[in-house]
Amino acid sequence: MTKKKYKLLLINPLSTKRIGLIRDQKSIYPPMSLAIIAALTPEHWDIELLDENFERFEFKKADLVGLTALTSQVTRAYEISEIYKKKNIPTVIGGIHVSMMQEEALTYADTVVIGEAESVWKNVILDFENKSLKRLYKGELKPLVDSPQPRIDLYHSGYAFGSVQTTRGCPMSCDFCSVHTFNGKQYRARPVKNVVDEFEKIPQDKVYFVDDNFIGYSKKSAKRVVEICKEIIRRSIKKDWFCAASMNIADHDEVLKYAAEAGCRMIFLGIESELIDQLESANKKLNVKIGINNFSKVYDKIHEYGIAVLGAFIYGLDTDTPETIENRTKYMLNSNIDAMQATILTPLPGTPLFDRLVDEHRLICNNFPDDWARYDFVEVVYKPRLMTARELTKSIDSAWKTLYDEKRLKRKFIDALKATRNPISATWSYNSNLHYHNLVFEHKKDKLVQDLNL
Ligand code: SF4
Predict the structure, then answer these.
(1) Closest Cα to residue 195, out of 227, 237, 234, 164?
(2) Architecture of the domain whose range is 152-444
(3) Using an 8 Å Cβ cutoff, are 124 and 111 in contact?
(4) Chain segment 213-231, per-residue pLDDT in tens
(5) What class does CATH assign to 6-138?
(6) Three-class secondary structure of residue 111 per DSSP
(7) pTM here?
(8) 216 CB less than 6 Å from ligand 1?
């Protein structure tokens, strides 16, 4: 007997604010979690992916609607969910934000999946077909040995970068990060073959390994990266890529050597601050262990292999003043970092930071869910400790102007070229700086900033 056909509409919503860290057109990445959900959906379901990064939402018929959202996208996700709810088409929402805010999400969606959805998606589908869809499903943290290959064929062809995830989870618990809450403290890895098979199929020649930490924290995980790189080399796959890693990657010459040979052009390092007390209070243990005096040796070591360094910093940590923000800006410009990401401390649900700021009544953008769109790393949404929100905004605006000044970025490019001796790596770092330049200056035009009652 042929099974009844169903239609699943998967939606990647775009922040209602339409700017921010996730809205930099050239550095957006495909909605991988939806592609994994699609891969887990039985064959008698037709699947369509509506991606607001490329097309504005218009109502489309479906039997079931699935949405995912980071915090800054969730306002839009709820808007879309309500449109379907009114038409009696059930909606299922998942992702990191709703996993932390399930009560809120249940107001706007019929069903909420909390945690990693892979372990429960088949039940969601089965229950829907049996007309017994539940309101809440709790996903478990499973080993990634059998994780499916995402349906990358559903992605819009306009993405400049492909993406692959090779691990999940982090044993650290940085104050501002929710990875350990959502993906767990255990570092779980996919088999090398699965990773490289997926990497090979990506149509783009530029790829981002989306792991929070590609290198991991043990000799075993470093060995695994070497195996991935060797397999890429063995199969002669010619793609340029970048990844995020902890600063201990500089201890692994073999990893850097094979990574460079396999196409690694840039490594994103979460440096956060050049002040030891700030790293300690943010619980950034690994960077404290490395020691701020050794940071430049880390950058040099990465350069030695022709790879550029993208350093990520935070403005607005609790002990920040206009002076420390100015000093952080000078540090970024004078250090041998090639690309500079400087974003504003953002308390996302699921982080220790969020819980603390709620307890201390320091969230100033708290008209939820509308204000979640402002939690996009380019707006001050909380009351800083040592200055007003207006003073912090002013200091950061001035810092960004200095940091992303076009002449300085050109100088950074020349420095990156000298340090890496690799024009592709230097160009990648320059392009990253240009994206951040566009991002923050687009933000400054945003009228929401003026509307904010600081
Ligand atoms: S910031 Fe990085 S190291 Fe810290 S908890 Fe998050 S993923 Fe782990």
Answers:
(1) 164
(2) Alpha-Beta Horseshoe (3.80)
(3) yes
(4) 999 989 999 999 999 999 9
(5) alpha beta
(6) strand
(7) 0.94
(8) no
